[in-house]
Amino acid sequence: MKYELDPLPYAYDALEPFIDARTMEVHYAKHHQAYLNKLNEALDKYPALYERPIETLLSSLESVPEDIQTSVKNNGGGYYNHARFWTFMKKDPYHEPSGEFADAIARDFGTFSDFKNIFSQAAIGHFGSGWTWLWVDLDKKLMISSTPNQDTPLNAGIVPILGVDLWEHAYYLKYQNRRNEYIEAWWNVVDWEAIERNYARELERINANL
Ligand code: MN3
Fold first, then answer.
1. Which of 16, 125, 171, 189 would be 182's cystine partner, CB 3.0–4.6 Å?
2. Per-residue tens of pLDDT for the chain, all 210 residues
3. CB–CB of 160/135 below 8 Å?
4. Cα of 94 to ligand 1 centre, how many Å?
């Protein structure tokens, strides 16, 4: 079966005033949809690949036929990155992490505010389009890194637990070229409960593979 878009888990205007409704609508219904359409178009030549979970497809790109590898990397990456991105946000979230995840932030970055600064600097400093991610390494340490374009960290065996879209289409309508203001506003809609669950799931996955 072809890949499909999950419904956006909230209304287009749910993240106002931090992320405006028009941006959310264009971002989901046009950009995310276009990555999906192009991914399916590429896979139409090799329909057996539809059976692979998207994570598997992207983490083993070398096993994808060469003539569609670039398209799967770019459009499959765009499809996966955005599907994750929507779930990292919600309306009126708790504004600080708690529990084990909060302890890990303190251990690896210092205060919560230190963590946000380091992550924001990585996102603001990333040249051009891409994503900044938070993930857990094999020593269970929290790590921050960025990828260009629609590349995913899955290629390197990394499953991100949080990430922010740095493409101008994510913020240009409201913030124009002011990526720093967009990132500053974005923190207000990060769903820390979801990120805590992602963190717990990653620890389980890492423990299971050790
Ligand atoms: Mn985007």
1. 171
2. 899 999 999 999 999 999 999 999 999 999 999 999 999 999 999 999 999 999 999 999 999 999 999 999 999 999 999 999 999 999 999 889 999 999 999 999 999 999 999 999 999 999 999 999 999 999 999 999 999 999 999 988 899 999 999 999 999 999 999 999 999 999 999 999 999 999 999 999 999 987
3. yes
4. 24
Ligand 1 centroid–CA 60 distance in Å is 23
Question: What is the 1 CA–ligand 1 centroid distance (Å)?
Answer: 24
Global confidence as pTM: 0.96
Ligand 1 centroid–CA 100 distance in Å is: 30
Cβ pair 129, 34 in contact under 8 A = no
Task: Determine the distance separating the centroid of ligand 1 and the alpha carbon of 154, expressed in angstroms.
Answer: 17
